[in-house]
Amino acid sequence: MCYNGNMDLNIRKDLIDLAKIFAKHDAPLYIVGGFVRNAILGFCETDIDICSRLLPEEITAILPNKKYEVKLINPKLGTVHIRVNATGEEYEHTTFRAERYNTGGAHSPETVRFVDDSSLDASRRDFTCNALYYNILTHEVVDYYNGVTDTRAHILRTVETPEYVFSRDGLRILRLVRIASELDFEIDAHTFEVAKKMSSQLRDISQERFNKEIVAILFADYKYDAIDNPQAYVTGLKRLGDLEAWEYVLPGLYRAIGTNIRKLYSNTWLNLITDAQPILRIPAFAADIVSSLNLKITRELITDILGIGGIMLNKRECERQFRVLRGFFEILNGDIFSEERARIFIQDNYEFLPEIFGLCDLAHIGKRIQKSYTLMQIDKVPLNLRQLDINGHDIEALYPDIPKTHYSQILTKLLHRTSIMPEMNRKDILLKEVAVIEGEL
Questions:
Q1: Residues of the chain where predicted confidence (pLDDT) is lower than 70
Q2: Pairing mode, if any, of strands 79-84 and 90-95?
Q3: pLDDT tens digits for 57-101?
Q4: SS3 state at 179
Q5: What is this structure's pTM?
Q6: How far apart are CA 14 and CA 20, in angstroms?
Q7: In Å, what is the CA distance from 307 to each residue of 185, 247, 250, 256, 294?
């Protein structure tokens, strides 16, 4: 064990008062993990996690229920939330524990044993910079794995051997990439080499767990205001390629195209996303994969990349991204060959134009269709069905025999006819056209 002196973290009074209660029961209260690490780096942009030797039921017994509310979160892991009623502050407390895992990379430990020794608790953690304990009352930093030195050197390294750490929890391979990206840390060479050799551990991780880590990597540059690293997310994606992890991160795509997914290991596919603002990162991520692997845009493909077989967007968001990507690739592939076609495309994709045009700007294409959009606005061309001068009620009033199931088709065709002739967008003219269109259906 090495001690690295005292450090004043300017802790809130309510947390100091809580620590005093713990101390009366021979249980020093520690802040552990990210908050301590970040304080050493010079900022405190993270939640405060606390720990001690006390069990959840012991904490409930010693805390006055008028001042504190203790909520059991995970009895197996000894996790409770402690709410300070006077201030509303809430802290997550976990009892010191030792863990045993089955073989494979499954995230949850098979057995948990609560212990009194913080060194045993430290040995179950992932990286040296996260195994730092700050005694709230003495201001002492307890460091069992030289984590203070690694933190100051901006190095991410496992607490025990990488083989031991990753064998206990495969998700730590993704955490390695995510934390290094967010903090702008280098990864210890041996740690990274072992992570690559053990990347198959990711096979045992649920897709829900993947989602949280991958989305965090995609927006790693926004995690901490104090760190200026605008390419953090690109570095993270490249590291996933270097780890040869994509077949495990995107199992749906791997099932669809097999070993072709390994082309993503070269990192040459990272094109649009390298300059993408946050709103465009997810569609740019998918667009780069589609382009690099020369795939055909389908709903199923986008679901494999972004949905249940990928980064776990819901069905509605997957459909939106499909529409965005389909529109972008229509422009990229030159399928919009006339002014009329451009205007109809704009009407059909009006809801998705900001993302479509954003991707076009990243790809340096689509200037002609964006000019068409500007001209349509100047000419007051209706851009969507809401801007038409008639609606379904108007059709029903004049043509009660037309089935309501036809209304959507009729209104869409009317919208398209106004794309070149905006002067048609008058109720009397449009209603005359309804009978003509109905006859064509």
A1: 1-5, 103-107
A2: antiparallel
A3: 999 999 988 899 999 999 999 999 999 998 999 999 999 999 877
A4: helix
A5: 0.89
A6: 10
A7: 30, 15, 10, 14, 20
**Helical ranges in 364-406 per DSSP H:** 367-378, 392-398
How many residues comprise the chain? 441
CA-closest candidate to residue 390, choices 421, 439, 349, 432 = 432
Enter the tokens of residue 401. Answer: 């025999």
Q: Tokens 């070993």, residue?
A: 259
Give the helix ranges, DSSP H, for 70-200. 118-123, 147-152, 162-168, 171-183, 189-197
pLDDT, one tens digit per residue, over 14-57 is 999 999 999 999 999 999 999 999 999 999 878 899 999 999 99
pLDDT of amino acid 209: 81
Which residues, in sequence order, are CB contacts of 300 under 8 Å at separation 6+?
A: 256
| DSSP percent split of the chain into helix, strand, coil, nearest 5 | 55, 10, 35
Locate all alpha helices (DSSP H) within 198-338, ordered by sequence.
207-218, 232-242, 246-249, 251-257, 278-292, 299-306, 315-332
The total of other beta-carbon atoms located within 10 Å of residue 401's CB is 6
Are the beta carbons of 400 and 381 closer than 8 angstroms?
Answer: no
Report pLDDT for 3: 43
Query: Residue type for 265, please?
Result: Y
| Residue 293 to residues 253, 262, 270, 329, 365, Cα–Cα distance (Å) | 11, 10, 12, 14, 20
Q: What is the rounded CA–CA span in Å between residue 176 and residue 239?
A: 10
CA 339 – CA 322 distance, rounded (Å): 24
DSSP 379: T
Q: What is the CA radius of gyration of the chain?
A: 29
Supply the pLDDT for residue 2: 43
Give the pairing of strands 140-143 and 132-135. Answer: antiparallel
Cα 138 to Cα 29, 35, 129, 135, 268, distances in angstroms: 10, 17, 20, 6, 51
